[in-house]
Design brief:
Blueprint (H helix, E strand, L loop, with lengths): L16 H9 L38 H25 L3 H33 L4
Helix pairs in contact: 1-3, 2-3
The chain binds zinc ion.
The site of zinc ion has 9 residues, from loops.
Length: 128
């Protein structure tokens, strides 16, 4: 069951993939697009927006972004590791160092982006 888009919440904002991408790369309050979405040096959502006072603490998505990325890495990194093993036959320690580094780096880069996008979608489609 799809939750309808709340167009009344989009006053002054345009729906476009470019705007969404910009929002995700520089996460801001989904209401005013000025205040910070995450606490400093963290991906913890702030309780209220410092600029407009919007209650952002209700948008706690828990492990949603992490679970999505774990599944995404499962279907991308594992085949890459399998192909690397069959092509180059590297030692086991190299697999460990290489893929752990790749996954931790990608997770650090993508986790805030995915979390911001899920919060943006949740905000747009929320009830009440
Ligand atoms: Zn705000």
């Amino acid at each position: 069951m799809a939750v309808p888009l709340r167009r009344d919440l989009l006053v002054g904002q345009r729906l476009s993939i470019v705007q969404d991408l910009r929002f995700c790369l520089k996460p801001r309050c989904p209401v005013c697009r000025k205040g910070r979405l995450f606490q400093s040096r963290s991906i913890t959502v702030v309780k209220t927006c410092a600029d407009c006072g919007a209650d952002l603490g209700a948008h706690d998505i828990g492990d949603g972004a992490s679970v999505f990325l774990i599944f995404f890495f499962g279907i991308t990194i594992i085949p890459l590791a399998w192909a690397f093993e069959n092509l180059a036959h590297p030692p086991l320690w190299l697999h460990g160092v290489l893929w752990l580094t790749v996954m931790l780096g990608a997770m650090a880069l993508l986790l805030p982006v995915v979390k911001a996008y899920i919060i943006l979608l949740e905000w747009r489609h929320r009830k009440g």
